[in-house]
Design brief:
The strands form 5 sheets. The chain has an 8-stranded mixed sheet, with helices on both faces. A 4-stranded mixed sheet has the order 2-9-8-5, with no helix packed on it. A 3-stranded antiparallel sheet has the order 3-7-6, with no helix packed on it. The protein starts with a helix and ends with a helix. Helices cover about 30% and strands about 25% of the residues. The protein is globular, with a radius of gyration of 27 Å. By secondary structure, the chain is an alpha/beta fold. The chain contains 9 helices and 19 strands.
Length: about 425
């Protein structure tokens, strides 16, 4: 009897081990956990809450107990608001089930300069005043005002041609690597794809600006590959005419049906998917790139450019969120920035011509380029309409046309010249 019980016990143990029932260590190993339960940031500084062993397909949410001390976005990036302590609760949602991953204690410290603000000793003010007054008078005479008008005029490229072989591989020149990656889009609610081009001699520990490249109306994340963007960039870098950068070939059709050559390309639903990409870029694509690649953050290190509908998208996003993007390229940009009716489709447009401008703080530090084929049979003179509105609104930008129709040869020319000014000015 004892022998029989022993056999039953061993059998039960074996079943439990195989099925995982009662094996708390095994199930626990699959659970997501916090990398750290404490983080410290300065006022204005950002830091990401990291989660270990994330479950594929799960959605993670973050909630700050005090947004006045520290705010947190959907990706778990904490921003210090004012000195103090608060907690961020992290939860995991899989289907209809939600569980708490844990809480992170966030300590926000003042920036060093914040402590220097108290009123200075009055004994110092007499010494400061005499030195300030003489320097103010001379500098106010040649005030910056005279230089503002010239910099507002449209910029001019002296040469809009491209050298022979600019888009072909050359002997002795190093080129970047193209990789296809997938990310989970919380905006759309599914896995989506994009192509990432790392520059020649890529260093995973380095720091690079990032350029998002947008495709045409019937394309997808593979649209730009035929234009050899990694070759164009590699040849420019070899001549020291472009900055090493990471290029991201995105899919701007932010919806469930995101494949190329959609049957409803001339519908408002299709256009709405492009509008939706504004949110996916900020909420999903940019955070993914920052988490997985050595991206330099800040508007001065971020650009967006595109062809045809992608050119329209670049103008829309660049002028909608100028606080995040400083370089905007539009090659044969499509109808839609302003109100139009074409191909049986009517849209009110993203902006009126008067609204198509930048806040004053970004007027002098944003580089915008619009170009088109002089014989374009698709977008016709719409790019010139965008150019004229920017001129009327005093927005500094490049504008030029070259012989050609609505083709990749024209767009490669635009990319070549855009790469030469991106992240330089």
């Amino acid at each position: 009897m004892k022998k029989c019980n022993k056999i039953l016990s061993l059998s039960l143990a074996f079943v439990l081990a195989v099925t995982g029932v009662g094996a708390s260590g095994a199930t626990a190993a699959k659970r997501a956990t916090l990398s750290s339960k404490k983080i410290s940031v300065k006022v204005g500084e950002k830091k990401k809450i990291k989660i270990k062993k994330k479950v594929k397909g799960a959605v993670y949410t973050f909630k700050s107990a005090s947004k006045k001390i520290a705010a947190v976005n959907k990706k778990g990036v904490v921003t210090g608001k004012k000195a103090g302590k608060t907690k961020v609760t992290v939860k995991e949602r899989i289907g209809k089930k939600t569980r708490k991953v844990g809480k992170v204690t966030v300590k926000v410290n003042n920036m060093p300069n914040d402590n220097v603000v108290p009123t200075p000793d009055q004994t110092q003010t007499p010494a400061i005043q005499p030195t300030v007054e003489p320097t103010v008078a001379p500098t106010e005479e040649p005030t910056p005002e005279p230089t503002v008008a010239p910099t507002r005029a449209p910029l001019v490229l002296n040469d809009t041609s491209t050298p022979s072989g600019f888009d072909q591989r050359q002997n002795g020149v190093a080129y970047g690597t193209l990789s296809r990656v997938t990310y989970y889009s919380t905006t759309v609610g599914k896995e989506r794809a994009m192509n990432v081009i790392t520059p020649p001699n890529y260093d995973p520990n380095g720091e690079y600006p990032v350029l998002y490249l947008c495709h045409g109306g019937n394309g997808d994340e593979g649209d730009w590959i035929g234009g050899n963007p990694e070759v164009i960039l590699g040849n420019l870098i070899a001549k020291d005419e472009a900055k090493p950068m990471i290029m991201v070939l995105v899919n701007c059709r932010a919806r469930m049906n995101d494949g190329a050559n959609p049957s409803d390309s001339l519908s408002l639903d299709h256009m709405a998917a492009w509008t939706n990409f504004l949110f996916e870029l900020q909420e999903d694509v940019m955070p993914y790139m920052e988490e997985n690649y050595p991206i330099l953050t800040g508007r001065e290190n971020t650009g967006i450019a595109g062809l045809s509908m992608g050119g329209r998208e670049s103008l829309y996003i660049g002028f909608k969120i100028p606080e995040k993007i400083a370089y905007v390229g539009a090659f044969s940009p499509a109808f839609g920035i302003f109100e139009y009716e074409n191909w049986g489709l009517y849209e009110t447009g993203y902006f009126t011509e008067e609204e198509f401008t930048l806040p004053e703080e970004y007027m002098q530090n944003t580089t915008c380029m619009i170009m088109n084929g002089a014989n374009d049979s698709m977008v016709r003179n719409e790019p010139e309409r965008y150019h004229n509105a920017l001129v009327n609104n005093g927005v500094n930008h490049y504008y030029y046309t070259i012989p050609g129709d609505h083709t990749m040869d024209v767009w490669k020319n635009g990319l070549y010249h855009f790469l030469k000014v991106a992240f330089y000015e």
